[in-house]
Amino acid sequence: MNGCNGYYALSDSSPPPMPWFGMDIGGTLTKLVYFEPKDLSEAEEASEVESVKSIRKYLKSSSAYGETGHRDIHLQMDNLIIGKRKGTLHFIRFPTSEMNPFLALAKSKGLATMASTICATGGGAYKFEEDFKREVNLSLHKFDELDSLIRGIEYIEDNNVDKECYYFVNSRDQDNCQKCTYDFSNPYPYLIVNIGSGVSILSVYGPNNYKRVSGTSLGGGTFLGLCCLLTSCQTFEEAIELAAKGNNHEVDKLVKDIYGGDYDRFGLGGDVVASSFGHMNSKEKRSKVSKEDLACATLTTITNNIGSIARMVAANEKIEKVVFVGNFLRVNQISMRMLSHAMDYWSNGQLKAIFLEHEGYFGAVGCLLELLKNQEVQHKKDI
């Protein structure tokens, strides 16, 4: 990986001082991982500064922070070895729009007294760099977000074997759809479709061999923005709840609306979307459509676009494993099942849609690992 490029000048092999955080500051959501050591000696516990103890106690005391911060307890990973220390990795998220309240909270917990560093990735690592320095006296070690993403995926998968990767069978059958574990022990080559505010698609051929091959500006941020505009919802969770209750057929024009049935020559079933939002040019249709239908159609439109691009890229790159990640997939089984069906159906069973339990946290994990890896590399150079 090449996201560090000699940025550091660390003089010994000991890890950075606690606490250890990794941040992925995205356009819509900020993801934070916190490593809690479980192997502290009595001497280490006695010498630990009060601000570190306060931060640890606060982060573990609750799964909610303020009105918008959440710790995903179900994703917590125990007994991990990071930086030669054994501990627990915690996963926390909050809207990037709430960065100022987050910094105020961090300051109130004593983070500003530590004059420490945080490793960060994502566009916000640049956008908010001066805010971190001014408000909480913290410097940001910045890492490339795609390097961090891949490193995070491979580390989490290696340490969450038989639990991290999964796929769906019978994805279109509500009653018989099943979630199955996927063996990712021989991964290369694979395609990563990272769905955040927008979408980036990467071809990965080995641990240090990847390239960005495509992307689209129509991603999770588009879905949330359009849903807020069309339905007056306020959050991603609310938008998904609305979509789950809606019917996109009331909004989208289907093949059967045009042909009166299937389009047999090209294998297009009557329920295939021919025109997203195609019914909305009708005043009568608009008067009958519900917020739920609009949310469902929006989710279907964004998901179908992502799936179509991913399928074409996979065919062009001659890759059969397509890994979908990103916080767009959080609490969003609708899109995961749609993507599963699309990959299988349109490739005649050649493509496999794979999903990961930790969804959008891989960039935050990866940049924390990059910090520690780069320190070890620098120490070897010094020696």
UniProtKB/TrEMBL annotation:
GO terms for cellular component: cytosol; nucleus. It is an enzyme of class 2 (transferase). The keyword Kinase applies. Its EC number is 2.7.1.33. GO terms for molecular function: ATP binding; pantothenate kinase activity. It is found in: Cytoplasm. One of its GO terms (biological process) is coenzyme A biosynthetic process. InterPro entries: ATPase_NBD (IPR043129), Type_II_PanK (IPR004567). Keywords: ATP-binding, Coenzyme A biosynthesis, Cytoplasm, Kinase, Nucleotide-binding, Transferase. The keyword Protease does not apply. Pathway: Cofactor biosynthesis; coenzyme A biosynthesis; CoA from (R)-pantothenate: step 1/5. It catalyses: (R)-pantothenate + ATP = (R)-4'-phosphopantothenate + ADP + H(+). Belongs to the type II pantothenate kinase family. This is pantothenate kinase.
